[in-house]
Amino acid sequence: MFSSPDALPLADRLISLRHALHREPELGLDLPRTQAKVLAALEGLPLEITRGRGLSSVTAVLRGGRPGPAVLLRGDMDALPVQEESGVAYASEIAGRMHACGHDIHTAGLVGAAHLLAGRREELAGDVVLMFQPGEEGQGGAKIMIDEGVLDAAGSRVVAAYAVHVAATALPLGLIATRAGTMLAASDTVTVTVTGQGGHGSSPHLAVDPVPALCAMVTALQTVVTRTVDAFDPAVVTVGSIHAGSAANIIPESGTLEITVRSFSAATHRAIRAGIERTLRGVADAHGVRVEIYYREDYPVTVNDPGEADFALRTARAAVGEQRVLVAPRPLAASEDFSFVLDRVPGAYLTLGAVPPGTDPATAPMNHAPQAVFDDRAVTGAAVLLASLAAARLQEGAA
Ligand SMILES: [Zn+2]
Ligand SMILES: [Zn+2]
């Protein structure tokens, strides 16, 4: 178990690393400079390090001094295509890119956890897999790392996995929240192409008009939510884009819809997908148009194992004090590719408040906003929390 004073000697180094990462954000699956900074920051630690093949990930295994299972800690490393307006001294030096989701803190925090855990390596009853992951923001980097073997990097399947995510809003600095069960939504993207028969606007009876079909689809889709989804297990269906036609007197040949779908349980996820596909095909039939549906399931629901969530809450309370840990009252509508990890091994996803003191958490700019500010002190906060989760979980396994 670790507490804040343990991280003090590391604080300057970790915050410098955080600032260096923040100044030079990289996007997606290919983060060569970020990877180099992480490797440099881990140098000298007794780690078995491998780099990703299909992405610039870093997997580091720390062998404990006592026998036991392996647990996994994850830190995502990618930034966002956002022009920074945070006003911090260490702001992004690359136009149009920003660490607007705080992944620079996750990366530096995981480096901090590596140092803390390595310092007590002999006490650890098992191994720790450190998962430095690119491509969280839509590219599914976690899935690629799983395919490349991160869950078995220690030689056996990890028995538990944890991730910490910082929040620029809602949670005051240092507050930790998690919950059993659903933590984050699933997100899907649906692209729909409707094709009829183009013609003259004066003679619709000689054409097959896709426009009324598209309009009927938009309204019918809302009925999928209100008529097939349990009101206590909600879903969101938003048609964010509708396009057809070029002039008033031309019936277009085709048109498109783009839809985002959020759901909070596997059952509703299945039901909403089936309902959307059925509704789109039915409306297309009624209008005599053809419909092509490209339904992409982006990230599944992020589900915390109840036992692991309970363990994480206990561990967090022991590390930072009872009054700084709370049970999240409901899931968040964001989504996460750590869900792919939690689909395969039990674990927990925790949020850590990073709102700078003096800013009202209720109105602070949220993650992904150009004005989002994440306080430096969250770096050691994340390091202590991650290291504590790994050490305590191995200790419980040994007990
Ligand atoms: Zn994000
Ligand atoms: Zn994020």
Describe the protein in words.
- It is built from 9 helices and 16 strands.
- It is 35% helix and 27% strand.
- The protein is α/β, with parallel strands linked by helices and 399 residues long.
- It has helices spanning 4-23, 32-42, 103-119, 141-147, 210-228, 266-287, 306-320, 338-342, 377-398, and strands at 47-51, 58-62, 66-76, 125-133, 160-172, 176-178, 181-184, 186-195, 199-200, 235-244, 250-251, 254-263, 290-299, 302-304, 325-327, 347-355.
- Helix 3 crosses helix 9 (377-398) and helix 7 crosses helix 9 (377-398).
- It has 2 domains: 4-182 and 302-398, Zn peptidases (Aminopeptidase, 3-Layer(aba) Sandwich), CATH 3.40.630; 186-299, Alpha-Beta Plaits (2-Layer Sandwich), CATH 3.30.70.
- The mean pLDDT is 97.
- It starts with a helix and ends with a helix.
- An 8-stranded mixed beta sheet has the order 1-2-4-3-5-16-6-15, with helices on both faces. It has a 4-stranded antiparallel beta sheet with strand order 10-12-8-13, with helices on one face.
- The protein is elongated and about 80 Å long.
- Strand 1 and strand 2 (58-62) form a beta hairpin.
